[in-house]
Amino acid sequence: MSLLVIGSVAFDAIETPFGKTDKIIGGAATYISLASSYFTDNINLCAVVGGDFPKENIKLLQEHGVDTEGLQVKEDEKTFFWSGKYHNDMNSRDTLVTELNVLGDFDPIIPEAYQNCEYLMLGNLSPQVQKTVIERLEKRPKLIALDTMNFWMDIAMDDLKEVLGMIDVLIINDEEARQLSKEYSLVKAAQKIMEMGPKYLVIKKGEHGALLFNEKQVYFCPALPLEEVFDPTGAGDTFAGGFIGYLAATDGLSFENFKRAVIYGSAMASFCVEKFGTEKLVGLEIPAIEKRVQEFIDLSQVELTLKS
Amino acid sequence: MSLLVIGSVAFDAIETPFGKTDKIIGGAATYISLASSYFTDNINLCAVVGGDFPKENIKLLQEHGVDTEGLQVKEDEKTFFWSGKYHNDMNSRDTLVTELNVLGDFDPIIPEAYQNCEYLMLGNLSPQVQKTVIERLEKRPKLIALDTMNFWMDIAMDDLKEVLGMIDVLIINDEEARQLSKEYSLVKAAQKIMEMGPKYLVIKKGEHGALLFNEKQVYFCPALPLEEVFDPTGAGDTFAGGFIGYLAATDGLSFENFKRAVIYGSAMASFCVEKFGTEKLVGLEIPAIEKRVQEFIDLSQVELTLKS
């Protein structure tokens, strides 16, 4: 099934306890596209970069089967730039620089060839832009998933709530779920958030795994205990990419298939954090992904009835 | 199989965002004994209280099948007292009062009838006392499990390391694992800790579940997402009680059986936090426990191969 990905394509500069990078390729849509490319080759990207964005990075996306007709290049402007520094525990970070640049007035243009997409992944962006994308699609996709962050809850909650009423799946982290719902308990938070629109909710808990909710069911996907988390940047976007890519590839919308999508998303995210930026998402092998997914399954598998 | 439980029997005064208690029954050995009593009726308690400890609380333990011959009552002294206040997120707390009282010079006397116990649970206490208990047993138990806390790492690390060399299973939380190993990654922490002696390590992560390690395997038990955590006091001890109680009852020392023990421990802990103190651990019904265990299993169960 065809997948339309919207989000930022950006430069990141990252500092972790293990080292720091110069400007490297980043952005939600980059991670989502790369991660989903291991599941489907029908990926259409809608985003914007400046003239400073290297052509070889666009080529890299194309080599992963990503159609970039919808990637606007504004030759006289600069690409969105984010710089951050992670604390020692890797669970929190300080944003050092945010330069919106081309993203400041991003007008998402949907090429004709992208119409009739069946799966839509709205990566973290202004809710206003996310809403515009939905409105510009002539036919509502089969499934619309959305990622967002606390920043938009702070400055554009009304817009966010409006777009939440238009989507099927919301993917956020535990802090964001608490902020959005004003509930500390994630069970209560989930109930409140699903009343806002989404039929499915994924709450990412970083090194503690992920929860999947629908109205009646809940699934807990563990996180693989890793020896080292090298750089968490993009892990959430990579999760979203693996998740939506798996759904688009399998085209199954049962809760069971959503559970598998959460595992695939988690597996992709576990690769992402092993190196800086998108490094590990380039040139991954399918057997390595399958092996990693099996590790996730084995991690929580238990046979209750036997005694030995 | 017979289970010997050592630890504090105490008074607690607890304040959470949901309310506060006067002095109520608490202490590691209390929670461990009550939780394990749902699995085995061969529980021997070694602890100490003062003359101020109500006889009906001792009777309560006896009604749960706990033998209290090893519970010393020092009529002229006072029972160990702890008071704490939980922060809004329930994940951290301030200790308001710690009065060691009878626990200050606790000399664990093992009644003759307690010798030859097969399972030994050393609840959180001074490592020196934990070591003394092991030394006073004429025959080494089949399995020795130990719980401890950061306090002992701060003031008695050498003693703690000595007793770690004498046990089979260590049960601690994630912060304690990091402090003990000086490693942030729990995988690395587990490796270092197992080099100190224990063949099995359980790392409790509170609302994020629990990890079980041996030299070659790892198991992740999810935590049930609860609508409300009312009072976390004793949850770790209750986990230990369910864990060791299940092992003593089933008498199986395979990794598979340890996994099940972790689930039973987690299920008992999930009951514990639903009310103040030990309230929920009194008069639980076995079918309710089995139902809760099944919820834990279902939470992470996934069928990878089918598409629907």
Describe this structure in words.
The structure is a homodimer of 308-residue chains. With 308 residues, chain A is α/β, with parallel strands linked by helices. Chain A has one domain (3-300): Ribokinase (UDP-N-acetylmuramoyl-L-alanine:D-glutamate ligase, 3-Layer(aba) Sandwich), CATH 3.40.1190.20. Helices cover 35% and strands 24% of the residues of chain A. In chain A, the strands form two sheets. The first copy, chain A, has a nine-stranded mixed beta sheet, sandwiched between helices. In chain A, helix 3 (127-136) runs parallel beside helix 5, helix 6 crosses helix 7 and helix 8 (235-250) packs antiparallel against helix 9 (255-272). Chain A is globular. The model of chain A has no long low-confidence stretch (mean pLDDT 95). Chain A binds chain B through residues 88-90, 184-188, 190, 205, 208-209, 211, 218-223, 225-229, 250, 252, 254, 256-257, 259-260, 263, 293-294, 297, 299-300, 302-304, 306-308, and chain B through 88-90, 184-188, 190, 205, 208-209, 211, 218-223, 225-229, 250, 252, 254, 256-257, 259-260, 263, 293-294, 297, 299-300, 302-304, 306-308.
Largest interface: A-B, 43 and 43 residues
What low-confidence regions of chain A span 5 or more consecutive residues with pLDDT below 50?
none
Tell me the structural class of chain A.
Answer: alpha/beta
| CATH architectural name of chain A | 3-Layer(aba) Sandwich
Tell me the radius of gyration of chain A. Answer: 18 Å
- Describe the strand arrangement of the main beta sheet of chain A, using strand numbers: 6-5-1-9-10-11-12-13-14
